[in-house]
Amino acid sequence: MSTTTATPDPRTTLDLSHTKPISFLTQLRVELRKSYDTRAGLWLLIVIAAFAALGMAIVVAVGLTQDDFEPEFGTFFSTTNYTTAVLLPVLGIMLVTSEWNQRTAMVTFTLEPRRTRVVLAKLVAGLLLALVVAVVATGIAAICNLLYGLLSGDGASWSLGEVSVPGFLLLQTIGMLSGFALAALFLNTAAAIVVFFLYSFVLPPVFLLAAALLEWVRDIQPWIDFSAAQGPLFDWSIEGEEWAHLAVSGAIWLLLPLAIGVWRVLRAEVK
Predict the structure, then answer these.
(1) Strands, DSSP E only, in the chain?
(2) How many domains in the chain?
(3) Is the Cβ–Cβ distance between 264 and 247 less than 8 Å?
């Protein structure tokens, strides 16, 4: 009895010896496309823009009906900060968790086995999207300011007031990074979103209550309350020890979860 070794047909054999590795720019374009070429991602971007427009429409309506309230560009600009800050981190969450919820991580990490590059591409994509959202929201603010000036007959005021543009951009960046860190930590969309809203809207009042009741909490609150530490960024009045408060609380609530989350993505079993 003899054995016959099959000879591969060169016409049907894929030669990978000369295949070029995926460039980081290509990976970045792929991650950016993932943020809007799904129904969930596209609708989230639409809802963020609509939410910002609705908030500023309310400002226009109040300004036209209340004599003691005269909004200026800074009023509309700050409104975008509050409205987009609610949903922008969800976009950062979906950039990470969509791979694991839809079970496409196997495909992604097969095409690009270097997980560090994939995570970095997602992170850069999230920061670019935060910048795009900030630019679009600023444009909507400018349009609403012009509209108010025309409807009121008093002309548009382009004063920013106490609002700081660098502070606004930094706050948007922190929000995106917070969502990204929680997504990497949990690798589950629902869990990351729930924890983010608890972390953003429940934890700060808990710190305030604890500080009001316990003196030792009052002493350490500025160092562990990340939300309060971000407050001076809004008007860029932050100085001196406030930068230290932001750095320490940010290390606890942002950098540490981000580091653990990235480590988990790099080590997690792909199913």
Answers:
(1) none
(2) 1
(3) no
Q: Which residues lie below 8 Å from residue 145, measured CB to CB, with a gap of 6+? A: 71, 72, 73, 76, 156, 157, 158
Report the alpha-carbon distance of residue 15 to residue 20 in Å, rounded.
12
Q: Would you write out the chain's pLDDT as a tens digit for each of its 271 residues?
A: 455 555 555 555 545 454 577 788 988 888 888 887 777 778 888 888 888 888 888 888 888 888 778 888 888 888 887 888 888 888 889 888 887 777 777 777 778 888 899 899 999 999 998 888 888 888 888 888 899 889 888 788 888 888 888 888 898 899 999 999 999 999 888 999 999 999 888 999 999 999 999 999 999 999 999 999 998 988 888 988 999 999 999 999 999 999 999 999 888 877 6
Cα(168)–Cα(235) distance, rounded to whole angstroms? 8
Residue 35 counted as domain residue? yes
3-state secondary structure of 145: helix
| DSSP reduced 3-state for 74 | helix
In a domain, 9, yes or no: no
Per the domain annotation, does 10 fall within a domain?
Answer: no
Domain-located, residue 1? no
Residue 58 tokens read as 């309310």
101, 189 in Cβ contact below 8 A? yes
Residue 221 CA to residue 231 CA, distance in Å, equals: 14
Whole-angstrom distance, CA of residue 227 vs CA of residue 253: 10
- In order, the DSSP letters of 183-213 are HHHH--HHHHHHHHHIIIIIHHHHHHHHHHH
Q: What residue numbers bound the domain in which 237 lies?
A: 24-267
Tally Cβ neighbours within 10 Å of residue 100.
Answer: 18
Write the CB contacts of 239 (distance below 8 Å, at least 6 apart in sequence).
Answer: 232
